Amino acid sequence: MTPRHKPMKQFLTLPPNGARFRALSLEFAWFGSESVSVDAPTLVFLHEGLGCIDLWRNFPEALCERLQCRGFAYSRFAYGESTPRPLEEPFPADYLERETLENLPDVLGAVGIERPWLIGHSDGGTIALLAAANDPGGAHYPGIVAIAPHYRVEEVCIIGIERARAAYEQGDLRKRLAKYHRDVDSAFYGWCNVWLDPARRGWNIEAALKNVTCPTLAIQGVQDEYATLDQIEAIQRHAPQTKLMKVDGCGHFPFFNQPEAVIDAIAAFVREHRQ
Fold first, then answer.
1. What pLDDT tens digit does each residue of the chain (275 aa) get?
2. What's the CA gap between 274 and 102, in Å, rounded?
3. Rounded distance between C-alpha atoms, residue 217 and residue 147, angstroms
């Protein structure tokens, strides 16, 4: 991927509703040229557990350029320049399910996106899977790409997050992340604490995977420091239409470690299945 300019960020407001107790200001950005074919797909990028718009780097623009389409990304509650989550208000155990059902549809409705392809990484990959599971007929999401998703808690994930916490508290991770998040402690500890909560060790979405019926591409680095390959193999076991891409020589960020291979695979997958 060659260097690109930073996306022009804007903000949208989600008002309180029955499930959302406060109004949220969320940053978002568009990628790709506005002059694309009317039947070109729209890609929606769902970031990882410590991510935001800026931490996608050049990937959304490069993929949109390859597909000659438009892309959209937003920073979720607590991330980037979006509304921070108060430190005394921990992420709920079902925070991924809530994001899928309560915020994602409202965000897409606010910007007028219909039937997007979801491209999710890590937490975002799980959100993409949950969205597809709640849309078995494909009325809202014609296809998804889940990069390094989680369907259950593994010991290797706990070890990886404990290592990240040590780097945050004793190393330079906090300084590096502070460049991207309005309240870096809110972003980091919200994610870290919910995954390390012993009460959440039994969390999994295995039952939902059988409801994923849309075209699905699951990608994972063979050396992922947060998961074993069972995370994507289970998706295929329950949703046999799933295509797997196991990327050797890389960890949790295949689209940074081997960008051209990942972009080639996603572009080919979307072209094959677009309606």
1. 554 567 889 999 999 987 788 999 999 999 998 888 888 999 999 999 999 999 999 999 999 999 999 999 999 999 999 999 999 999 999 999 999 999 999 999 999 999 999 999 999 999 999 999 999 989 999 999 999 999 999 999 999 999 999 999 999 999 999 999 999 999 999 999 999 999 999 999 999 999 999 999 999 999 999 999 999 999 999 999 999 999 999 999 999 999 999 999 999 999 999 86
2. 27
3. 8
Match 């190393």 to its residue by tokens.
171
Q: Are 103 and 182 in contact (CB under 8 A)?
A: no
Interatomic CA distance for residues 62 and 256, integer angstroms: 12
Which amino acid is present at 25?
S
**Count of CA atoms in the C-beta half-sphere (13 A) of 224:** 28
User: Amino acid letter at 156?
Assistant: V
Q: Find the angle CA(142)-CA(217)-CA(113) to the nearest 5 degrees.
A: 30
b/e burial code for range 161-197 (CB count within 10 A of at least 16 → b):
beebbeebeeeebeeebeebbbbbebbbbbbbebbbe
Distance, in Å, from the CA atom of 119 to the CA atom of 238, rounded to the nearest integer, reads 20
Structural tokens at position 251: 């960890």
Q: Dmax of the chain from CA atoms?
A: 51
Predicted structure pTM score: 0.97
Helices (H), 23-89: 59-67
